[in-house]
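Appendix B. Chain record.
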Amino acid sequence: MKEMQLKYGCNPNQKPSRVFMKEGELPIEVLNGKPGYINLLDAFNGWQLVKELKKATGLPAATSFKHVSPAGAAVGLELSDTLKKIYWVDDLELSPLANAYARARGADRMSSYGDFIALSDTCDVPTAKMIFREVSDGVIAPDYEPEALEILKGKRKGTYNIIKIDKDYTPAPIETKDVFGITFEQGRNELDINEELLANIVTDNKDMPEEAKRDLMIALITLKYTQSNSVCYVKDGQAIGIGAGQQSRIHCTRLAGNKADVWWLRQAPQVLGLKFKDDIRRADRDNAIDVYISDEYEDVLAEGEWQKIFTEKPVPFTREEQKKWLAENKNVALGSDAFFPFGDNIERAKKSGVKYIAQPGGSIRDDNVIETCNKYNMAMSFTGIRLFHH
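Structure tokens predicted for this chain:
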């Protein structure tokens, strides 16, 4: 197939719409559904991300994409009992690939609602069963087990978007796009992200364990496919906070840091002890937890409100208790797609447990940023490579 007609472009008024190849055949096969313009943008960016994660780590990888940026990305490390519970997968059989998607989906479940999924490996039955019960627009993978494909075809009354991509497809080295009738052309970003990029450690602390290097590579690869400006917090093989598309880097750092904090707070005993009614949907549970650990927590504890969601009235999770719990989050990795211009980014990162950093360097205030890292005994690498994505 050389081209595929689409219902419309980014918006319903943008017609006609299609995807096509100038030379050769499309490297995809739509096995089910009718993916749209934005679906395909998410699918192709997500596929590139997971393919690179698999290459860099040797582990199966998954990402959860929304509006051309990842809401989560992860590799298939085994989940702890706590993570299984906060990701709502403690009742499922988990394969390595399913672990990867549980992590990618679970880090920021609110942002992942209605996502497009990319998988680095053949979609197996455990992963398909997990996807089946989440609100999602579609999935792209190099292949599907027969039973897994049948499970997914039953999703959304048979309209779920399922795309198979040729894992060996290699695009042309020059890419183009049209904006306002004007064609832009550039070389594809073929940068190979590996441990060598982390060799230039500029801080007093030069200790960077293998797990930290893995997490920093995950951060950098994720940033490569995140709308800029962007930063990414990673811990234990998964993104736990992604700040995308902000005009100010400190706003990226705060946004992603707040998401990382929510991820950690969800693991606190106060949250794990919440007693939900059996008929409450997972998405509504996520929303209730988000309110419970926010400044609006009294809303969910109000008379007449908590009875709609919980079987028992939750005990307040105070700011003091949250601050104490957040202090226990340590050894977090942080990547940035461009240099940190001020030490305030490091100060904010420290509040979310950051110990390891990778960024391009090159600011006139690099000395200030390094000094701030040294104050907290952080290890920071200058990669020398910017990762803007637009």
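Further analysis of this model is presented in Appendix C.
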